[in-house]
Design a protein that fits this description.
Blueprint lengths: L12 H12 L6 H6 L1 E4 L2 E4 L11 H11 L1 H4 L4 H45 L6 H16 L4 H5 L5 H23 L2 E12 L5 E11 L4 E11 L5 H14 L7 E6 L3 H4 L5 H13 L5 E4 L1 H9 L5 H16 L1 H13 L16 H11 L1 H10 L10 H24 L6 H23 L7 H6 L5 H21 L1 H5 L1 H8 L14 H8 L2 H9 L2 H4 L8 H12 L5 H13 L7
Helix pairs in contact: 5-8, 12-17, 12-20, 13-14, 15-17, 18-20
């Protein structure tokens, strides 16, 4: 006998499942609690007696479990006795569930605490192994302050490997956020510098500064790239491009590059800056791209034009005699203490921007004591008895103090490049003033020189006036890029006073509209310069674009220097892995 088979398309799984559940009434019913001692937990039937779950929500399965395992013990309970037993079993189940919930909450809190402590350790540049020390301290404190909470603290995992994993997770999450943020930038600049660590591996520090459509500034560390072979311009450029491409940087939105001014960075034909500019201009069709030699480095190089080596050589030689030998140093400190003078004479380190001024100032203050001590040690400093040399020392103290004050103003992060321009412009005006005053015998702004200068000997001041003239010329030469950007900077700093005719043709009309907008003029007077341009959106697209470019510019590689300082603290000969 042949059966006829009728082929029909199957129902979708979701519809088939729904129909099956509906037709079989797979919904927990309250009467099952009374009959079979079951309850529903998270859509699953759970036995109140043994807490076992039944996989399929069917009355047959629930009844079979009850009859097989518990009917003999509980069938005699009827009426009010059965209700009381059910309530007792329900209460026990709820307590058990709340205990599990507390354990889960404690576990989640312990993991969160582990991440928070790992974040604090890495921000404080501490070894990962310090996590175990932190945990020991917490447990000791918990024993005294809250003994009942000690088990909760004990659950926090802070082993070296755990902290390393936590830091890796945090780094990956921050990297993902940074990549997403970079995609929103309408203008972006890069600061790059290279230094060698304790293991003689060159490290390339890369920072980015971007501005999004709301003109919000983001300034962040991107990568520290180890360069284990050569560090030619091609090597640095390749590493830089690889990291920026990995981060998803849009090259058409690049505005500027700041470097330390090393030959490999700023070489005219094959330097990193030249290669970077060519890549950007090839991508965006030739728009302007600016390269900045770190302003802090430039200022330090300007100081070298003073050429007061006859002063510095004597100072450094004398300081080294006192500091190089422990015995000499101790005897000098005792000598100062005997005269009720605070001890201390710092070294001069060429790579530290402010050390020259600190050494000169302290040497000048202690010149009499130093002279007496050196006489006592049989190594007299004859120059200290020469008025002309002491005047040169006083001039160097004063001018380096002025230069150090400028250097401090140029330091810091999250500054707008126009602030650097204003500081440099102000200092050049001061140099012009001092040049005129010294030529007239006026030493008002040189207190140390005033203290030792003999009145009426103006001829002695001419040499210092010439030093100021040379310094001014060096500032003019090294900061020429500010002259090239002067119109844009002038508009950014004071948009309501510039002449529209002095601005590029494509933004002249928007400049006029802005200067006639009284509400914007009031807003400019009430908010900061770095936030004012956010209020131009969306009515002034050209001015907004110009503001974004200026806001994104790096003026220094100060952030790179900070990164290298942290690197040197972390990567010592004891921690060089």
């Amino acid at each position: 006998m042949v059966r006829e088979i009728r082929l029909t398309p199957p129902l979708p799984k979701c519809l088939s499942k729904r129909r099956k559940v509906d037709t079989e009434c797979r919904v927990f019913q309250e009467k099952w609690t009374q009959y079979y001692l079951f309850t529903e937990v998270n859509t699953k039937p759970v036995c109140l007696v043994c807490n076992q779950q039944v996989s399929v929500l069917k009355e047959y399965n629930i009844r079979r479990h009850y009859e097989t395992h518990h009917e003999e013990k509980y069938h005699h309970l009827q009426g009010q006795l059965r209700k009381e037993k059910i309530n007792e079993l329900l209460t026990g189940l709820k307590k058990q569930q709340s205990a599990f919930t507390r354990i889960r909450e404690v576990s989640d809190a312990a993991v969160k605490a582990s991440y928070l402590i790992a974040n604090e350790l890495v921000q404080a540049s501490k070894p990962f192994s310090d996590g175990e020390f932190v945990k020991t301290c917490m447990l000791k404190a918990a024993e005294v302050v809250c003994p009942e909470k000690r088990p909760a603290f004990a659950n926090i995992s802070l082993s070296r490997n755990t902290v390393a994993d936590r830091v890796e997770d945090l780094s990956g999450d921050l990297g993902g956020q940074m990549n997403d943020k970079i995609k929103s930038f309408i203008a972006i600049s890069v600061a790059v510098d290279e230094s060698t660590d304790v293991t003689d591996v060159a490290q390339l520090a890369i920072f980015i500064r971007g501005v999004d459509e709301t003109l919000t500034i983001t300034e962040e560390f991107l990568e520290l790239v180890p360069m284990k072979d050569t560090t030619t311009a091609n090597d640095i450029f390749s590493s830089l491009i690889r990291m920026l491409d990995k981060a998803g940087v849009d090259w058409s939105r690049a505005v500027s590059l700041a470097t330390d001014g090393a030959p490999s960075m700023v070489g005219g034909k094959a330097g990193v800056a030249t290669k970077f500019r060519e890549k950007v201009q090839a991508t965006d069709g030739g728009q302007d791209f600016w390269t900045f030699h770190c302003i802090l480095h430039q200022e330090a190089l300007c100081c070298k034009t003073l050429k007061m080596d006859h002063v510095m050589s004597v100072v450094v030689q004398t300081v080294n005699f006192i500091r190089a030998r422990g015995l000499n140093h101790r005897q000098f400190d005792c000598f100062l203490s005997g005269n009720d003078i605070p001890a201390g004479l710092p070294y001069h380190t060429e790579v530290r921007w402010l050390s020259r001024g600190a050494v000169l100032k302290r040497f000048f203050e202690l010149r009499e004591e130093i002279g007496q001590f050196m006489e006592k040690m049989g190594n007299p400093v004859k120059e200290l008895k020469c008025l002309e040399w002491v005047q040169g020392l006083a001039f160097m103290v004063d001018i380096t103090q002025h230069l150090n004050n400028l250097n401090k103003m140029l330091q810091g992060r999250k500054k707008v490049v126009t602030q650097y321009y204003e500081n440099i412009r102000s200092f050049k005006l001061k140099l012009s003033l001092w040049e005129t005053q010294l030529s007239n015998g006026d030493t008002s702004h040189f207190p140390c020189l005033t203290a030792v200068h003999v009145t009426g000997l103006n001829a002695d001041l001419d040499q210092y006036k010439d030093k100021i003239t040379g310094l001014l010329q060096e500032f003019e030469r090294r900061f020429q890029i500010f002259s090239e950007l002067e119109n844009e900077f002038a508009f950014f700093r004071s948009p309501f006073t510039v002449k529209a005719s002095d601005m590029p043709a494509d933004i002249q009309l928007e400049v006029i509209d802005l200067q006639c907008d009284s509400s914007m003029k009031q807003k400019f007077a009430s908010v900061g310069l770095d936030t004012f341009y956010q209020y131009l959106l969306p009515g002034y697209p050209k001015l907004t674009s110009l503001a974004a470019k200026i806001l994104s510019m790096f003026g220094t590689t100060y952030l790179c220097e900070q990164a290298f300082s942290v690197m040197n603290l972390n990567k010592t000969k004891h921690r060089s892995g």
